[in-house]
Specification:
Radius of gyration: 16 Å
Number of strands: 0
Order of helices and strands: HHHH
Number of domains: 1
């Protein structure tokens, strides 16, 4: 049930962000900056998972295993910071951060299991 709720929040947030994006106006620069800033932790998580993943069943405790979850929390903070930095695109930043956070959190959970080698 929690997973269904997170998927609903992600789809709703990204859908509303797509509606708030100024498709026909030439002011795309702050919106592109917001998208890049909010997608950066997800890209770093995917890179960590691709570079440092262990085979299933190895179960190794390393300090890097906590990095994806910390990056997911940083992404939530970046949503707040981008809403403050870009006042003209405030609602776009808030809605996009709300939509990307469940995706980043889910990916961080999977990446943490991949980095540790311990799968549930």
């Amino acid at each position: 049930m929690l997973l269904i709720g997170l998927v609903f929040v992600a789809v709703l947030g990204i859908g509303i962000a797509a509606l708030l994006y100024p498709w026909r106006k030439p002011v795309w620069r702050p919106y592109l900056d917001i998208i890049v800033l909010l997608l950066a932790p997800l890209v770093v998580i995917a890179t960590l998972q691709a570079v440092f993943a262990l085979p299933p069943g190895s179960c190794v405790e390393r300090p890097i295993n906590n990095a994806p979850l910390i990056l997911a929390i940083i992404e939530a903070g970046l949503g707040i910071v981008t809403a403050i930095i870009f006042p003209r695109a405030r609602w776009f930043a808030i809605v996009l951060a709300t939509g990307l956070f469940p995706i980043t959190l889910g990916w961080a959970f999977i990446a943490t299991m991949s980095l540790a080698g311990c799968w549930i």
